[in-house]
Design goal:
By secondary structure, this protein is an alpha/beta fold. The protein has three domains: 60 residues; 182 residues, Rossmann fold, CATH 3.40.50.300; 204 residues, 3-Layer(aba) Sandwich (Rossmann fold). It is 46% helix and 15% strand. The protein binds adenosine-5'-triphosphate (ATP) and magnesium ion (MG).
């Protein structure tokens, strides 16, 4: 009798317990924005699957992740997700075309250069006959000289030197003539000052000012046309010049590229830059070659043998023509002939440095882990004497530790700028029923005729939003996603870059490597997949250092769409889906902050302590801080 009663009690308890667990699982799904009916159906199937024996395992802790994954799988996939891999393959093709044209034009270039040199020889002016400082292209190596009566600044074989009593500043990069003529460095006609044009206006520097500068400062002005350094850029360049290992943490758009590109131009050898995406490499090479005239090239597994051979041959020359060699990480891991080429460069003292850009990809704990990046520890093992610089805009403390130990640079000098972008204003707006109309109104009321990006989750969303803004709101908008033909994408990007079009409605395929300074707003029509992604995407606003706004339009159910997209991503295993879901959950927490400072949450996510009053009393308080002070 006693036994029967005990069994009955156990059964009741089991049933109650089970109901509690089922309710917990259901509320987990609903909390994350999944549709309740669908979640119930999915839960029934799960209970059936676990059977009587497995009932006690039906808990949030045991099978919460499997339940969510199964739920995502049952969702009708009516959205057209973007294929970022397609953009990558294509970027490789574009780069090859450009570089091949360059190779084909080499003979023509040489002829032009010879003709230029002979004409310069015929017109050359003896230095001692010059009455005032002047600037011209030297006849031998297409070098540049700034001449003064008193001093010589010479930049030969990658270093500036000043020799009193003589008169030139000399640059010996092969392509330097192009760079400098494009920067319009001019003699302003006076005996003691030089005028050059940076991105904004004319800048005049007196000879005295030039005289006190070191070679890093001179290169920043002469080669890159920058008036000043941004925080920590100078220190990073100096550390590189001292051949130190270095870890640079700077916000998005903080100017990380300069930290290795500048030292690369001053070193006689080649700087090898590891970059995760060909689309990023493409942008860097365009900018180096065309804006600054610095020779840069790339190697990738998608190139043909002859393309690879051409690059390798150049690297094996006594004086390779390229200063920066961009590679994707798989090139480093397990490619014997590339490794031999690097050794050959090193023996000649021409392997200047390894640079690991977007270094957060090294860490499994980062938001964008790339397995090939793990193999980069090999570099320090094989080339212990070659300095390394790692750079990222997103790294929490655990990710940082992981990066330093994986790359085997535990003693690296860590240069850490604040990740805060004080002029970016962060806001979250709850989506209302007619969210397109709401979006149109936000843009019309606050960003009329300004340049911006509206990030969308799927291709179909991009097109719908763009159509709406164009047709209903009469705005100059277009869409951009990886599924478009290359020609269409280039044309869309150009129209936006030149200001012909104000708004791009795009998937995350847009923005990789895009560096438009005057983006005044970034609106997320759907939340990002992680805080890191959000920081990076929203960080494309205000790269000119002027105020800009980052708005996220939020509704609960967008979380399930994000997970759906993640699930559809190639090679997504359930373990990585779980990590991805946790990251998306954190993003959702950001969206749901009611009173807490958004800037503070973003910065604390990256391990930075931030006093909220910095946001509240700063120039662009977030929406929550704004309400608090009003
Ligand atoms: N010292 C400087 N003065 C003026 N402009 C600069 C300076 N340094 C960099 N810039 C400009 O700032 C912009 C952003 O630089 P860069 O692309 O290197 O940023 P980043 O830190 O690599 O950003 P991301 O994290 O997005 O990759 C570029 O247009 C660059 O020319
Ligand atoms: Mg960068």
């Amino acid at each position: 009798m006693y036994q029967i009663r005990a069994e009955a009690r156990e059964l009741t308890w089991d049933r109650e317990n089970m109901e509690v667990e089922l309710a917990r699982l259901l509320s987990l799904a609903v909390d994350l924005g999944f549709e309740e009916g669908l979640a119930k159906q999915c839960l029934d199937r799960l209970v059936e699957l676990y059977g009587d024996d497995g009932k006690k395992f039906v808990t949030v802790e045991n099978c919460g992740d499997d339940f969510l994954a199964a739920l995502v799988d049952t969702m009708q996939g009516n959205e057209d997700w973007d294929d970022l891999h397609a953009v990558e393959s294509e970027a490789c093709g574009v780069l090859n075309n450009i570089l091949e044209k360059d190779f084909a034009n080499d003979d023509q270039k040489a002829e032009t250069m010879n003709a230029f040199r002979s004409s310069k020889k015929a017109n050359s002016v003896p230095l001692e006959n010059l009455e005032s400082p002047s600037l011209f292209i030297n006849d031998e190596d297409s070098d540049l000289e700034i001449l003064s009566e008193k001093d010589v600044f010479s930049w030969s074989s990658g270093s500036f030197a000043r020799k009193s009593g003589q008169t030139h500043l000399q640059c010996s990069l092969k392509e330097q003539s192009k760079s400098l003529s494009q920067q319009s460095i001019e003699n302003n006609g006076s005996a003691s000052a030089y005028t050059y044009r940076d991105q904004h206006s004319s800048v005049t520097l007196t000879l005295e000012e030039l005289q006190v500068m070191d070679q890093v400062e001179l290169a920043n002005i002469v080669i890159f046309g920058n008036r000043t350094f941004r925080p920590l850029q100078y220190q990073a360049c100096k550390a590189a010049m001292d051949n130190r290992d270095c870890f640079v943490l700077m916000p998005t758009g903080g100017g990380k590229s300069l930290c290795y590109q500048l030292p690369a131009t001053l070193h006689p050898g080649v700087t090898v830059v590891v970059c995760p995406l060909l689309s990023l490499i493409q942008d860097q090479i365009f900018s180096l070659n065309s804006k600054y005239g610095i020779p840069a090239t790339f190697l990738n597994s998608q190139q043909t043998n002859s393309q690879v051979l051409a690059v390798m041959q150049d690297l094996r020359k006594d004086r390779p023509s390229c200063k920066l060699l961009y590679v994707t990480p798989e090139r480093i891991a397990g490619n014997a002939s590339f490794s031999d080429t690097l050794k050959c460069l090193q023996q000649k003292g021409l392997l200047a440095r390894f640079v690991i850009d977007e270094a957060h990809c090294v860490s499994q704990w980062g938001h964008d882990f790339r397995p090939d990046y793990r193999g980069l520890g090999l570099l320090k093992q094989t080339f212990p004497g070659v300095p390394m610089m790692a750079l990222t805009a997103t790294a929490t403390h655990s990710v940082r530790k992981d990066i330093l130990s994986t790359l085997r640079i535990p003693g690296a000098l860590v240069l850490e700028a604040s990740f805060d972008r004080p002029k970016l204003k962060y806001e979250v707006v709850d989506k209302c029923k007619d969210s397109l109309k709401q979006l149109g109104q936000v843009i019309k009321n606050r960003f009329s005729n300004m340049c911006g990006i509206v990030y969308c989750l799927s291709k179909s969303e991009c097109m719908d939003v763009s159509d709406f803004l164009n047709q209903k709101c009469k705005m100059k908008a277009l869409y951009y996603h990886a599924g478009m033909a290359a020609r269409q994408r280039v044309s869309a990007q150009q129209k936006w870059q030149t200001g012909e079009i104000h708004i791009v409605c795009a998937t995350i395929a847009f923005g990789m490597g895009i560096d438009k300074p005057d983006v005044r707003f970034v609106i997320h029509n759907t939340m990002s997949k992680s805080i890191e992604s959000y920081y990076q995407e929203s960080g494309r606003a205000g790269r000119d250092g002027l105020p800009a706004t980052c708005i996220l339009l939020y509704q609960k159910k967008d979380f399930s769409r994000v997970v759906c997209m993640l699930r559809s991503g190639q090679g997504f295993k359930s373990k990585s889906l779980k990590t991805a879901m946790l990251q998306a959950k954190k993003m959702q927490e950001y969206c749901e902050l009611k009173t807490q400072c958004r800037r503070q949450m973003l910065l604390e996510h990256f391990g930075e302590t931030f006093d909220r009053s910095g946001c509240k009393f700063g120039c662009s308080p977030c929406d929550n801080c704004m309400h608090l002070s009003s």
